[in-house]
Amino acid sequence: MLWLKERGIASVAESVLNSEELNKTVARLLVAARNDGYAQGYAECSHHVVNALKVDWDTSKSATHGVNTDAALAAAKTEFNNLQLPVMDLINVTLQSEDHVAQLKETFPDGEDKDEDPA
């Protein structure tokens, strides 16, 4: 259990956090959130200009005109919330093993001699 507590958890966590599927999904979510924030900020600013100056502000040439950033952000959130990582399936199968510590060592090696007890 010492390996699992000291080294194994880090190897398992790194495998999950560094998974390509998670990285790509988080990147898409960040881009969608940034785009939506920009579009919403531009719309709010335009609204304030119209109210303050009592003029019609033409937003038809803005990069956000006609773009539904809400839908893109909602889709990115849904993708993130429904994300399934293959590494999690591997972890679940490994934990079903009778000797799950040995199985985790084999599945997620940390490159050190794990049989030595430093205590």
Note down, in words, how this protein is organized.
The chain is mostly helical and 119 residues long. The protein has one domain (2-107). It is built from five helices and no strands. It has helices at 2-17, 20-53, 69-81, 86-95, 100-107. Helix 4 (86-95) packs antiparallel against helix 5. The longest helix has 34 residues, at 20-53. The mean pLDDT is 82.
Give a concise summary.
With 119 residues, the protein is mainly α.
Features:
mainly alpha; 5 helices; 119 residues; 68% helix
Element-by-element helix/strand order: HHHHH
Shape: rod-shaped
Structural class: mainly alpha
Number of domains: 1
- Computed over alpha carbons, the radius of gyration is 24 Å
Largest sheet: none
How would the blueprint of this fold be written?
Blueprint: H1 2-17, H2 20-53, H3 69-81, H4 86-95, H5 100-107
